[in-house]
Design goal:
This protein is α/β, with parallel strands linked by helices and about 525 residues long. It has 17 helices and nine strands.
Length: about 525
């Protein structure tokens, strides 16, 4: 039943999202629909929590009359409790269902004129602002700071006039108000899964921009399984380029418990989405710390170490690479910085610095990191020869990421390796489901993870290379150097080919004779 409800919910939410589709780009209407879903979630959580407090008094939260002395007393007491437990507060009149009804009556069919007469844009903007204001001076202030700033209710993309914008928003809220999120079923994460589904749908329509905020769920699953191998609980998980936070949340699905989530994201809009995603997946505000800044230039979790680290950083991005970084503890020991035009190894170095002694990290990178020379070759050699942190190299299929068709790889690092004398190489580049965008199947994922955990040597798929072998190849990690995927070509029977050519010659000669006879009968020249 829960799976059916999840699929139904996903389809309902996507249909509502399409109400805005014709008016703006995918990444623009994404911010509105996800923001409104998040507002509805906050309101329903608030109402559920308030009702639980009021249960002994035999009243419901919506029944409180806010202007009476008794009502104000109730609200003040509930506010204090809610800010501690939930991290935010909403009055009964500010609940999603109330603003939706104000825009659409009691949910019955209403005319465009009636909707316009029930003007709600100003009220809605005030409520969204009040959610943030309610957290001022509390522990959760940073987590809610400017969380709704990407919802511009005055944007002409919603409509040329305030009345037109009001009509569109009122309809969206009315549709959302009819959907039951079933938040009381605490053992399920139906809404969280549906939210992830929507983020993925928006990513598929956002082209190159999608890579900035979303890693396909199948790839996230591989990374999450790699860094949780052999563990049931994690003290911490960190993603230095966290996007929408989907990778962090995927790690949580692979273990019984994650104590704390940490992330950093450069893009402001994506940073907002990551915080929403955390809260909507019922991660308590005290258990996550997402920062907005450039990870390489301005790291925000200085000197912290994490048990699991995952990342899908921008491929071969430009970075400062200023020589001042040579005094930065993240880079100083290597003797060289990653090149200015390719920050791939700078992200690796940053992550290794933050990796706990008992931790594991997995990072997605372009294939160039495996064999490029100069500074990158120097850093690669240092990581293997001096530190011996590299545990596995896994080649992925082409065209599985949004915005780029290039084949990629996963590098797995551990500071305390169970197999310090070798490195595992896996070539899974041929194992995928073809499509407009290729995808890893569950069988493909299971094969990668099983091979990693068992450290198996499988013909034309995986190989365990000794450190001596890697040194002999001058620390070039190009996968074909270790995993031989060459297929012998079928032997050609020369005699059979000669006989086939003779037959073809005979057939051609017969056709020529037939055509000549036809031409003679018609008294015309032959074409030969």
């Amino acid at each position: 039943m829960s799976e059916d409800h999840k699929k139904q919910l996903e389809q309902q939410l996507w249909n509502i999202a399409n109400t805005l589709r014709g008016k703006m780009d995918a990444d623009e209407f994404r911010d509105y629909i996800l923001g409104f879903i998040f507002f509805k979630y906050l309101a329903e959580k608030m109402e559920m929590y308030a009702n639980s407090i009021l249960k002994t008094d035999g009243i419901k939260y919506k029944e409180i009359k806010e202007e009476t002395a008794n009502g104000k007393e109730y609200i003040e007491a509930i506010k204090e409790e809610a800010l501690e437990k939930l991290g935010y507060f909403l009055k009964p009149s500010e609940l999603f269902s109330e603003i939706a009804k104000r825009g659409n009556g009691n949910g019955d069919e209403v005319t465009e004129e009636e909707i316009q007469n029930k003007f709600i844009l100003e009220d809605l903007q005030k409520i969204l602002n009040n959610i943030q204001l309610s957290t001022m001076g509390t522990e959760s202030e940073e987590d809610f700071d400017h969380l709704f700033e990407d919802i511009d209710l005055n944007s002409t993309k919603l409509g040329k006039t305030p009345e037109a914008r009001n009509t569109v928003i009122a309809k969206v809220l009315a549709h959302l108000n009819k959907i039951d999120f079933k938040l009381e079923q605490t053992e399920l994460d139906v809404l969280g899964d549906a939210y992830e589904y929507l983020i993925g749908k928006f990513a598929s329509g956002a082209g190159k921009k999608a890579g900035e905020f979303y890693t396909p769920q199948e790839v996230s699953m591989v990374l999450a399984k790699l860094v949780t191998a052999g563990k049931s609980k994690l003290k911490s998980v960190y993603d230095p380029t966290c996007g929408s936070g989907s990778l962090l949340l995927r790690v949580a699905k692979e273990v019984q418990e994650v104590n704390n989530f940490y992330g950093q994201e450069l893009n402001r809009t994506t940073y907002n989405l990551a915080r929403m995603n955390m809260i909507l997946h019922d991660v308590h505000y005290r258990k996550f710390d997402i920062k907005q800044e450039d990870t390489l230039e301005h790291p925000q979790h200085i000197d912290m170490q994490f048990e699991a680290i995952v990342a899908n950083p921008p491929f071969s991005a430009h970075w400062n690479a200023n020589q001042l970084f040579m005094s930065d503890d993240r880079f100083s020991q290597y003797g060289k910085l990653a090149p200015k035009s390719k920050a791939d190894f700078a992200f690796v170095q940053h992550m290794i610095y933050h990796l706990a002694e008992n931790g594991q990290m997995a990072i997605i990178l372009p294939h160039g990191v495996l064999f490029r020379s100069a500074a990158e070759g120097h850093i690669r050699r240092y990581l293997i020869e001096e530190k011996n942190y590299l545990d596995a190299v896994i080649g992925l299929p082409p065209n599985i990421f949004y915005g780029t068709p290039i084949p990629t790889c996963i590098l797995v690092f551990k500071k305390c390796r169970e197999n310090p004398e070798n490195i595992l190489f896996v070539d899974s580049s041929q194992y995928f489901e073809k499509g407009t965008q290729n995808a890893l199947r569950i069988t493909d994922i299971d094969k990668i993870i099983s091979t990693y955990r068992k450290r198996e040597i499988i013909d034309k798929y995986s190989y365990v290379a000794s450190l001596e072998e890697i040194a002999e190849k001058d620390y070039n990690l190009n996968i074909p150097l270790y995993v031989d995927t060459y297929e012998d070509e079928e032997e050609i029977d020369i005699n059979a080919v000669a006989e086939e050519i003779q037959q073809m010659d005979k057939q051609t000669s017969d056709i020529d004779k037939t055509l000549t006879n036809f031409c003679n009968e018609l008294n015309i020249s032959t074409p030969f």
